[in-house]
Amino acid sequence: MSKVAVVYWTGSGNTEAMAAAVAKGAEAKGATVEQILAADFSLSAAEEYDAYAFGCPAMGAEELEDSEFQPMWDEVKGSLGDKKVVLFGSYGWGSGEWMDAWKEDAEETGVNVIDSPIINEQPDDDGIAACHALGAQLA
Fold it and tell me: What global pTM score does this model have?
């Protein structure tokens, strides 16, 4: 049985809803899942998991949240090795450039990104189903 960390930052609750759906999808496939706020996740905690889902909405000029999420991400990304990782988030403007830049940063560090979906605004039923499927990929 795999142990999955769903690590996220949320401002409006949209990314939190996505995180909950990712967690449910992984649990449905038999994984043990922990949902963790970005501020509560660290390099030492990262070693405890078999797979990861990282969620952060687009902020400012299409970038990761910079006071809690970005510092945590910078600390842990180099330790993820070849474990399965998904990146996800919501946005309310732009075209998703923040996810493209985030995924590129992850892959340049050697992170095994298996998927990186984004949802405009609040996830609808199709978005929740896509997040369930995302979690199932990690289990």
Answer: 0.96
